Amino acid sequence: MIWKLKVPPRVKTLIWRICRNCLPTRKRLRDKGVNCTIVCALCNLEEEDNMHLLFKCAGSRNIWSMWNAYYFVNHILDGYQDIKEVIFKTLQVLQHEDASLFGCIIWSIWKQRNNKIWKEVTDAQGFVFDRAKSLLEDWKVARSIQGSTVRREYPASNVKWIKPRSGRFKCNIDAAFFETAKLVGIEMCIRDENDHFVLARTVCFSPLCEVHVGEALGLLSAMDWVHLLQLGTVDFEMDAKRVVDSINYSHTDVTEYGNIISNCKTLFSQFYENSCVEFVRRQANEVAHSLAKAALSSASSQILVTIPNCIEHILFNEMQLIYSSQKKNTRKK
Questions:
Q1: HEC string of the chain?
Q2: pLDDT tens digits, residue range 79-101?
Q3: CA angle centred on 153, ends 150 and 156, rounded to 5°
Q4: What is the mean pLDDT of the chain?
Q5: What are the domain boundaries of the chain?
Q6: Is the pTM of this model over 0.70?
Q7: CA-CA 20 to 30 A from 2: which of 28, 93, 101, 174?
Q8: What is the mean pLDDT of residues 301-312?
Q9: Surface-to-core class of residue 287, CB atoms within 10 Å of its CB (0-12 exposed, 13-18 middle, 19+ buried)
Q10: CA–CA separation, 309 vs 192, rounded Å?
């Protein structure tokens, strides 16, 4: 039942750990001989076990009460004391959509607890509930995008740059190879939902490498840099089809290239589960391509906070195309 839930893998894994009684709550750690306090990190009143933390704690109850299906959960809590029974009985009575949100709320409460302990950050109860809903919605969107991305044939719409959806950012990546200078230039450019330039970064390194290796290093560099910026949900685009396919397919590759892809997947699973990596044609990646070619002018890494001259005209043209498209859609309505 757990593995059939339509939720991110991290949520399934967490619920499985709860049902197996291997979640490292403070009571569980004390029972295992760890010298730590046993008091709940959220309320500082009761012992922190699975049932108390996720369902009985006053703060957790407030979070659950924000959900319109809480009646079912509360009714089951009155009849059962074992958390495994509570979870399975609840999943049995809920509709598919409610069951998915049920799992995400559990995950968000657990994250609230961990943020309090490890980051000394107190998440507001309303934020905890909204985070659960956002996690589920963003995951659904990402799955729908990845579903279209993994097809071998890519739609003609990706020949022009398309701005990200509301509340998201987009990072375009490309690599250029300079035979004479024996250098590889990597560029990443971030834009927001309004098609506004946010930041760009150029990196040069040597020696030369195979094209697919350089493109994969570009994606790895972008993922490593973007996650430090803490912008929120960021989608990645590049015109390296082999790299995008490698990210979206599961296969073993023990080469240098395979190792880079493996590192990309590790970063993606840790920081970008609600994001996607998409293939676009060169015409839709012109900003990144132009900056990558210009990277040779700098021998070291550069972070660009203003629009470079070499891409100003491209950004302007792409904004004009988006504006014209929006205007046409408005007229149709």
A1: CHHHCCCCHHHHHHHHHHHCCCCCCHHHHHHCCCCCCCECCCCCCCECCHHHHHHHCHHHHHHHHCCCCHHHHHHHHHHCCCHHHHHHHHHHHCCHHHHHHHHHHHHHHHHHHHHHHHHCCCCCHHHHHHHHHHHHHHHHHHHHHHHHHCCCCCCHHHHCCCCCCCCCEEEEEEEEEECCCCEEEEEEEEECCCCCEEEEEEEEECCCCCHHHHHHHHHHHHHHHHHHHCCCCEEEEECCHHHHHHHHCCCCCCCHHHHHHHHHHHHHHHHCCCCCEEECCHHHHHHHHHHHHHHHHCCCCEEECCCCHHHHHHHHHHHHHHHHHHHHHHHHC
A2: 888 999 999 998 988 888 999 99
A3: 115
A4: 85
A5: 2-147, 157-332
A6: no
A7: 28
A8: 80
A9: buried
A10: 19
pLDDT greater than 60 at residue 332 = no
Band (26; pLDDT cuts 50, 70, 90): very high
- Pick from 316, 314, 291, 313: nearest CA to 304: 291
Angle between the 83-93 and 9-19 helix axes, to the nearest 10 degrees?
130
Are the C-beta atoms of residues 127 and 116 closer than 8 Å to each other?
A: no
Query: Quick check: 207 pLDDT over 90?
Result: no
- Report the distance separating Cα 21 and Cα 26, nearest Å: 12
Q: By C-alpha distance, which of 208, 203, 201 is closest to 177? A: 208
Q: State both tokens at 321.
A: 């195309």
- Are the C-beta atoms of 145 and 278 separated by less than 8 Å? yes
| Homologous superfamily (CATH) for 157-332 | Ribonuclease H-like superfamily/Ribonuclease H (3.30.420.10)
212 vs 244: CA distance, rounded Å: 10
Backbone angles phi, psi at 173, to 5 degrees: -130, 140
C-alpha distances in Å from residue 324, one per residue of 291, 318, 327: 25, 10, 5
